[in-house]
Structure formats: C-alpha cells, structure tokens
Design goal:
With 351 residues, the protein is an alpha/beta fold. The chain is built from twelve helices and ten strands.
Length: 351
C-alpha cells in the first residue's frame, strides 16, 4: 500500500530544494531513496522491458549524443521501417525471455501519414501477444496520438533529455516546448508517459536538477522515468565528453526516486557498461526497471542470462504483469503471428 497518494505527490519542486537532495552525504541520500522506494514498491522486483529499433538511422534531428542522427557520420547501418511480422516475432521472443513490455523505437522527426498504418498494426499485434506496448516515434500531433491510444499503445516515450537551459547545446532542430507539447497530447489521450534524460553530456548539477524538476512538476509524473548514461559514439559531437562520476549517476537515480515516488525509474542506456556493483547500487537507489536491448533478442542470450544471474544473486525477481493462464498467452501468440503472416500489410518503402 502506497504511503503517498496521487493527490499528495509533489509538483512544486524548486531548484534549491532539489540541489539540497543531491548534495546530501551519499549514504543519507541512498537511505532516503530506499525508504521512499519501499513505501511504494516491492523493493525486490524490477520491471523488464525489451527495446527494438523498428527504423534505424538517417534521422533529420541533430541530437548531439545520437548515432542515429543523419547529421553525423557514425558508420551506423541504416534500416527502413521493419515489417510488422518481424516486429511481432521479436516481441514474441522478448516475451519468452521474460519481458513484460515491448518498446519500439523509430528514428523519425515525427511519423508520416504513410507509416502510421504499419505502426498501428505493430501496436495491435504486440498487444495481442499479451505484452505492454511502448513506442518512441518523435513528435506527435493530436490525431496521431489519439490513433496510437486507440490501437492500444500503453506508453509513449519522449525524453526531455536535459534542463531547458542546457537543451539548446544538445539539440537545435526541435524545441523543448515541442517536446512538452507532445507529452501533453500523450497525457490527454490517456496513454502513460515514459520520459527522462541523459547524464554525461557536459551538463551541470543545476541541469540535472532542472531536468528532474521539469519531469516532476508536470501535472502528473511520468509513469516511467528512464535515466541514461551517455554512450559515447565515435562520430557524434559528444564522443569525447568526460565520464560521469558513477556516484553522481547513482545520486541522480536516488533523487528521481524521491521526487517521483510512484514512477518506475529506469536504469537505461549505458547499463551494459556498468559493473554489477554499480547496478546493484542503482537498484538500492530505487531504480526498478531495465531494458533488454535489441541485439539481445535471441534464445541463447548471454546478456539476458547475465542479468538474470545478477537478479538471482541479489534476490531480485522480474516484475510481472497481471497474470493470464499460460495457454491463453500461447494461443494469443500463435494467433497473432498467423494473422500477421497472412496479412497483406507489409511495409513497402517504394510506395
Ligand atoms: S530524434 Fe531520436 S533518433 Fe533522431 S537524432 Fe534525436 S535521439 Fe536520435
């Protein structure tokens, strides 16, 4: 039972207050975060999502951290929108390795009218497999948001990335206001929001605090708050940024947990470079969601096995969705795959 109700969650955080949280002695901060965490969640459960890139590279946006931006030459292999059938097969595999949510990401400024029917089909198909659905497709207009909600999309991911003050140093092709507008459309449509940011882009403590203030002071907290550590990719403008002090990263998770007590805080990009001790500190700070990545979608999945081994050593269990009988799940999976195989709806990039 939650100690804080939605009605008394705070949406009025100030910069001095949040900086004071960050500046506490490390142990005090972790103790406070773990106390808040235990009041709202089973401290030994972690939600597991799988991320699949459904359209890779050649993005017109100029996010300085991103290897998918068409503005930088990172040698990334570009891919067109995946066929619906391929996405559903990947989703079925994700479910088989224990994921409860399937996140589909496309490197777009915004979805085009031509792409929307395929995207909606993906949502419907993944949903039919008994998975929660999440997408990140860039900026949305009201109609697109509504269509996604009606297709059964549970979460929409749209990160704020950093504070409004630092944002212009990282992205110039999309405004902070546009991001907030997309988040407002998502909220109005009844979908859940996944929104967070990135550490290690050269931002100050004020910027880290400023990002969390933006998220927590939204009319409702995002249900999911991914906190990413910059993955430095050669060819991007941030390739040579300084490493973040690992303890500062843990502090960010802890402060996010305290400010948004009922949200899932996701230990997101950069996790694969973290050792087990750091990951366990992240869970202690209140992180309770992780990603299995796209390349991990194989049955012999060493990273997934490694994650499960770490969970076992820490006594952590994956969070479950509300349970359906196994046979019902299996029937749904088979039916969705057959339906899609027979469907004439395949993506034809030439049209
Ligand atoms: S909008 Fe997304 S895919 Fe495109 S450059 Fe920015 S982060 Fe990368």
């Amino acid at each position: 039972m939650s100690a804080t109700t939605a009605a008394n969650l705070r949406h009025d955080w100030t910069l001095p207050e949040v900086k004071a949280l960050f500046e506490q002695p490390f142990n005090d901060l972790l103790f406070a975060a773990q106390t808040v965490h235990r009041a709202h969640f089973d401290a030994n459960r972690v939600q597991v999502s799988t991320l699949l890139s459904i359209k890779t590279g050649a993005c017109p946006e100029d996010c300085k951290y991103c290897p998918q931006s068409g503005h930088y030459n990172t040698g990334l292999e570009k891919e067109k929108l995946l066929e619906v059938q391929k996405v559903l097969e990947a989703a079925a595999e994700a479910k088989a390795i224990g994921s409860t949510r399937f996140c589909m990401g496309a490197a777009w400024k915004h979805p085009s009218a031509k792409d929307m029917p395929y995207v909606l089909k993906m949502v419907e198909g993944v949903k039919a497999l008994g998975l929660e659905t999440c997408m990140t497709l860039g900026k949305l207009d009201k109609e697109q948001t509504q269509a996604l909600a009606e297709a059964g999309l549970d979460y929409y991911n749209h990160n704020l990335d950093t504070s409004p003050e630092f944002y212009g140093n990282i992205i110039t092709t999309r405004t902070y206001g546009e991001r907030l507008e997309t988040l407002a459309y998502v909220r109005d449509s009844g979908m859940k929001i996944c929104s967070g940011g990135i550490l290690g882009m050269g931002e100050s403590l004020d910027d880290r605090a400023g990002l969390l203030i933006q998220l927590a002071n939204l009319p409702e907290h995002p249900e999911s708050v991914p906190i990413n550590m910059l993955v430095k990719v050669k060819g991007t403008p941030l390739a040579d940024e300084q490493d973040v002090d690992p303890f500062d990263f843990i502090r960010m998770l802890a402060v996010a947990r305290i400010m948004m007590p009922q949200s899932h805080v996701r230990l997101s990009a950069g996790r694969e470079a973290m050792n087990e001790q750091m990951q366990s500190l992240a869970f202690l700070a209140g992180a309770n969601s992780i990603f299995y990545g796209e390349k991990l979608l194989t049955t012999a999945n060493p990273q997934a096995n490694k994650d499960m081994e770490l969970f076992a050593r820490l006594g952590i269990k994956p969070e479950e969705r509300e349970e359906h009988a196994d046979e019902v799940h299996q029937a749904a999976i088979e039916q969705a795959l057959v339906e899609q195989r027979d469907s004439k709806l395949f993506y034809n990039a030439a049209v």
